[in-house]
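Protocol step 4 of 5: obtain the predicted structure for the target chain.
Materials: sequence only (see below). No template structures provided, no constraints applied. The aim of this step is simply to have a reference model before the mutagenesis design in step 5. Sequence pasted as it appears in the construct record:
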Amino acid sequence: MPDQREMVANYRCNEIKEEALEISKEDIANLKKRTDVEIISGFKEACMVPVTNAVEHYDKSANQYQSKVYSKVRKDVVEAIM
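Step 4 output (structure tokens):
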């Protein structure tokens, strides 16, 4: 059974994951708007922006929680975006 620290870490990391995914949704919507009106030079790099911004937000906000939980949920963030 998980201890209290692990439960808190799991709760907060998943909350922060949802925030990060919202950021990526906004970035993806902006990218889609751009592709509707222009051909984007460096499209591959532009596609990484939602992932990068979401992971940066997650890292900044969740890095103080238990490393096992932090790492697992960080992986979930990337997988959810991909």
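Step 4 remarks: The chain has one domain: 4-81. The longest helix spans residues 4-37.
Proceed to step 5.
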